[in-house]
Amino acid sequence: MQNVNFIKHLKGVFYQFSKDYRLNPTHISLYVALFQIWNNNRFLEEFYINREEVMRFSKIGSKSTYHKCIKELSHWKYIIYYPSHNPYKGSKIKMFKFETSTGQALVSINKHIQTNRNNKNINKLDQPKNEKEVVVFFEKEKWPIIEAQKFFNHYQGIGWKVGGKTKIVNWQATAKNWIIKAEEIKNKETQKSVSQNQDNLKTSKNKNYNEPL
């Protein structure tokens, strides 16, 4: 059993929530439900949970959403989640203490969040910086500049969204798909041209060259 100050812990964890851009209301609702079950278990070092009970407490209606959020809370070091495939035993949870904003756990998580934020900025690939970056990419793939310009103008015009709806995550991957499709179109046009030339060389009638013109 751990010595946990109920008020200080909630104050500390909600302070952390306010700074963590990764969380959404479902994560917070799930954490509060787990905290309440932890409290009911007198703040044991580890305790078992029942998925239906946790979903009812947290008002989560989807099993996939529940599993996604609890795994993310574990990955982000708010809890440790030990999943179980035994319906009679239930999964096991370990909660971290958040009694002060200057505690070691908070410092560690803050550093982790800042690192992720920096990496996200460095590896931002939802759209290129400018047309020149696209041209350089297409040149590396040994494709003409005109194709790079067509790609850039097309997606620039629709806000870098696939089909004008879904936001692009990695423009370079989208560019490679563009190149693949362009290659397929080029091959089809070549095959069509060859086929037409072959048809033109064929005659469907037996011509009698003894007949006058």
How would you sum up this structure, described in words?
The protein is mainly α and 213 residues long. The protein folds into two domains: 6-122, Arc Repressor Mutant, subunit A, CATH 1.10.10; 131-200, no CATH class. The chain contains eight helices and five strands, in the order ααβααββαααββα. The strands form two sheets. The chain has a three-stranded antiparallel beta sheet. It has a two-stranded antiparallel sheet with strand order 4-5. Strand 2 and strand 3 form a beta hairpin. Helix 2 (25-40) crosses helix 3, helix 2 packs across helix 4 and helix 6 crosses helix 7 (145-157). The model is unreliable at 101-108 (pLDDT under 50). This is Transcriptional regulator. Residues 189-213 are annotated as: Disordered. Residues 192-213 have a biased composition (Polar residues).
Report the uncertain regions: 101-108
Overall pLDDT score: 82
Task: Figure out the total of helices.
Answer: 8
| CATH classification class of the largest domain | Mainly Alpha
Radius of gyration: 30 Å
* Broad shape: elongated
Write the element-wise H/E pattern from the N-terminal end onward: HHEHHEEHHHEEH
Oligomer: single chain
Record the strand order, biggest sheet: 1-3-2
As a percent range, the share of helical residues equals: 55-70%
Largest sheet: 3 strands, antiparallel
Class computed from helices, strands and strand pairing: mainly alpha
Strand content: 5-15%
Number of domains: 2
| C-alpha termini separation | 109 Å
CATH architecture of the largest domain: Orthogonal Bundle
How many strands appear in the DSSP assignment?
5
Biased composition (Polar residues): 192-213
Organism: Polaribacter ponticola
Protein name: Transcriptional regulator
Region (Disordered): 189-213
